[in-house]
Amino acid sequence: MTAVAEEHWTVDDTEALDDDGAEPQRIRYEIAAYPTDFTIQVLHHKWRDGQLVIPDFQRSYVWSLTQASRFIDSLLLGLPIPQLFLYRPFSSSKLIVVDGQQRLATIAKFYSGVFSERQVFKLRGVSEEWNGKLYADLGEDDRYRLDDSTLRSIIVRQVQPKGDSSIYQIFERLNTGGTQLNAMEIRKAIYHGAKYTFLETLNKESSWRHLIGRPFPDNRLRDVELVLRVLALASNGNGYHKPMKTFLTDYMESLPSEQSSEMEELGQRFRQASRVLYDRLGERPFHLRSRLNVSALDAVMSTAIESFECLATDLESRYQNLCAKNEFLDSVMYNTSDAVTINRRLRLASELLVDSTG
User: Fold this and answer.
1) What is the pLDDT of residues 150-200, one digit of tens each?
2) pTM for this model (two decimals)
3) Residue of 206, 243, 230, 228 whose CA lies nearest to 300
4) Most buried residue, 35, 106, 127, 162, by CB count within 10 Å?
5) How many whole angstroms separate alpha carbon 126 and alpha carbon 121?
6) In the sheet that 95-99 helps form, which strands lie side by side, from edge to edge?
């Protein structure tokens, strides 16, 4: 299992999973952005109570004790601090931290007195009057001064259209990390909770792993995006619109925010489709020309999910006939994200793999 070569994951050259070559987003937004001067104590309470959400894509805490101490020293001295950037979702009172994780985590660590599992948070390399002190060791005036210090926060929320579709664009454009995020990593940050957990759970299904030829989850979430893709096309293939990136983001946003009977039924159909395709087509059936062809996978898998009860009993021979059709091969090799092309391969897959008399 561990010897699986990385090239088995490579998709066909005509299409990247996150559709990097797609035309830019054309939706016009009305965005409200307003500054708020939260006190340090209020920010600490919001962090402690879970109102401030750190997206999963953000790097872990990386400041050293000296760096963190100098930040607290700046607050005590009244020096200017870079502002925070927060996003308020449409249906939540929580605030998603776009920029400012290191500063917020440092505040929380200093108030708790714990810098790491093995280290207390005693200020180091700062003004002599505070050097070596915990928050609890500060004099009353210093504690009050720190508590009442303010940190400018810019809060952004989407006014029109209703929902949080703009947050994808905001994260993509204001990504402050050193590694450029792909589309699914951004979706994970935005739609954390039941929506992402649902996709992640399905991605671990054994039959699905055999179908895509990848025994272990991908650390860039490309396999999770494939799950999202086949579900979106199975649920709304006729409503597909370019670019694929936006189509998938819109579909993920439409999923219920909490576990529901709708998600349970969809998940069950995904599992059934994965098992029957693996049982009848074997391992890696969508690796055309030795590479995973995402378009062949999305056509067959979404058809199996949508019409599971009517799949033909001679599925293997029918799939071979499908792959022998020049019209189908063209639809999975060229202009694969065009609406006409997607509708064509979905239609062909349905015509050949579904028993119309069933």
Assistant:
1) 999 999 888 888 777 777 677 666 654 445 668 888 888 778 788 999 999
2) 0.64
3) 230
4) 106
5) 13
6) 30-39, 150-160, 84-87, 95-99, 52-53
